[in-house]
Design a protein that fits this description.
Function: Catalyzes the first step in hexosamine metabolism, converting fructose-6P into glucosamine-6P using glutamine as a nitrogen source.
Subunit structure: Homodimer.
Strand order of the largest sheet: 4-3-5-6-7
Bound molecules: fructose -6-phosphate
Radius of gyration: 20 Å
Subcellular location: Cytoplasm
Enzyme class: transferase
GO molecular function, one term: carbohydrate derivative binding
Distance between the termini: 31 Å
Number of strands: 12
Amino acid sequence: DKGGYPHFMLKEINEQGAVLRNTMGDRIKGEAVDFSKELGWSQESFAKIKKIHIVACGTSYYASLVAERLMEGMLPIDIRVEIASEYRQRSIHLGEDVLAIFVSQSGETADTLAAERLAKSKGALCLAITNGLGSSLAREVDHVLLLKAGPEIGVAATKTFTGQLAVLYLLGIYMAKLSGALSSEEEGRLVKGLLKLPYQIEEILERQEMLKPIAEKYASSRDFLYLGRGRSFPLAHEGALKLKEISYIHAEAFAAGELKHGPIAMLESDIPVVIIAPQDSLYEKLFSNVVEVRARKSPVIAIATQGDSNMKDVANDVFYIPSTDHELYPFLAVVPLQIFAYYIARARGCDIDRPRNLAKSVTVE
Ligand code: F6R
């Protein structure tokens, strides 16, 4: 049941406020994160963890990269994020001092499962973050954290990205507390920000149709670039992946700082560039990237923070997201990227919920 929407993907994009409420639900008590029932780790048991590996594919991998940028700022533990198919093939140190987190919407992705079996065989503590209750992954790990996103029918992952981010952020806060690295004031600030997100997503969704004419203007482009820095770098990848999957347009993502190291040579007037430039400590640098790209005549579509009036003077099109703590804006910035890809695919007459060559869960290697 598409609930009155023309596609499951659009329905699922519009469910993201509710998904966040469900997923955070009873994992937040007052202004504190509480995983005591689901994980119940003690300071002593957590103290033996010296390394954290987060392993995933596709969209789940990009959610993991966003979360890495939160966790590394809070936790005195080395964190690495790997693509499951690569993790399996390499000689990465694995042992009892490793917490290995496997992020998979379906819990059935062959490479992620194989990576989990490898980590488990080497004695790592294995945790799954999945929407697949009863999935193979959920059955095999030491601990499971469910997304509570409800079934996702559209092949392109949308609401489960948001759900994964929520669980990863809560887990990051929980682990930072266990390692004594997060004050209760900091935790309270983050939790208050997290609790506001569902309303802020719904405010974005009220304006979703503003993206339709922008998408239609660029729908016949053959190539797109996506640029971000810091937390918006993995979001650039996620935005490009959404566009590739459902519209079949070639889209590439770069860390904006890499622009001068090669990609800038490609820029031309018919290559639109999506730049995710929220107002944080990296804003000035991203703003200069917008100016550089415009100087090469490429149109810029910017995702910026409400109140940033300078952006509309340089970018060709701007979509504004509400202001939030700098750690939290990925939850908001991903929504217009999903909707933009959706409207482009619709303008091109693509089969949005069942894109060619793709399966919802990739159970072969
Ligand atoms: C993107 C997409 C894929 C999946 C990837 C991992 O929209 O759907 O890239 O994210 O196949 O799938 P899971 O999360 O089920 O392991």
